[in-house]
Task: inverse folding
């Protein structure tokens, strides 16, 4: 996907069906002018996953996008968090109602990860196991914590990381958009430094490519387009068992102070 970058950020996004699935239930959207990026990974029978992820992207882009265009990039962090949750609540209700009204869409839902990228901060929100990573000065960190059964088991010490890698419950999420009447978007705010590289991805990447390999690819001196293509290729080379989506955003601005959400 060719994306026009802003004065503060470079963007690139790519989605791929993978080597096993017949259709792509992932959806992505990037608005460089607003510094807003969204990635959704749908789930559900028939084309329910595609419908859920598409609805989440369209509704959040419209509702929160309008709010952000009015509030501006320096809106208070708490206001951004509140507006994101309001938009998430609206999308959740719409997806839930659509699933209830159509038997073919019953039970559909979607995970979600999004970024609001300004001159001095990155506000990251997520639901489920779609992730956000950050590469800073060679250090690669996962910024989001999966809302999944496997993560809960890891946190409780019930399984080891080695057992988690082989767990049959890897894809069981404990939080998703469109499944229950209420859902909480987990939101955190991070300071931005020049050169920071943020990666949003569906589990079609994180399940197929180890963090160390993602880090190696991102450290290569390629364009963002090359990096995105290499990440998707790595997931496909390792089996491509799911749809694969990535959004990359690289900070071009000046170093600024840390904020809090």
Result:
């Amino acid at each position: 996907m060719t994306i026009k970058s802003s004065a503060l950020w470079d963007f690139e996004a790519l989605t791929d069906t993978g080597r096993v699935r017949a259709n792509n239930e992932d959806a992505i959207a990037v608005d460089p002018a607003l510094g807003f990026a969204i990635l959704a990974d749908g789930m559900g029978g028939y084309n329910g996953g595609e419908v859920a992820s598409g609805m989440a992207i369209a509704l959040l882009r419209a509702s929160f996008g309008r709010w952000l265009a009015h509030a501006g990039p320096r809106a208070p962090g708490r206001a951004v968090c509140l507006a994101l949750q309001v938009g998430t609540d609206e999308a959740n209700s719409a997806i839930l109602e659509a699933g209830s009204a159509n038997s073919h869409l019953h039970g559909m839902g979607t995970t979600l990860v999004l970024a609001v990228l300004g001159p001095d901060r990155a506000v990251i929100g997520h639901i489920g196991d779609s992730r956000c990573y950050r590469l800073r000065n060679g250090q690669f960190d996962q910024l989001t914590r999966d809302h999944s059964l496997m993560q809960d088991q890891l946190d409780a010490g019930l399984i080891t990381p080695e057992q988690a890698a082989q767990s049959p419950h890897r894809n069981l999420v404990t939080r998703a958009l469109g499944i229950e009447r209420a859902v909480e978007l987990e939101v955190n705010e991070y300071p931005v430094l020049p050169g920071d590289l943020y990666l949003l991805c569906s589990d079609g990447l994180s399940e197929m490519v180890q963090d160390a390999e993602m880090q190696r690819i991102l450290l290569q001196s390629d364009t963002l387009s090359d990096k995105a293509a290499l990440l998707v290729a790595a997931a496909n080379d390792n089996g491509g068992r799911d749809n694969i989506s990535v959004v990359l955003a690289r900070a071009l601005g000046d170093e600024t102070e840390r904020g809090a959400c």
Q: What stands out?
A: Strands lie at 9-16, 26-31, 36-43, 109-117, 121-127, 131-136, 139-142, 186-191, 197-201, 244-251. The chain has one domain: 9-143+176-251.
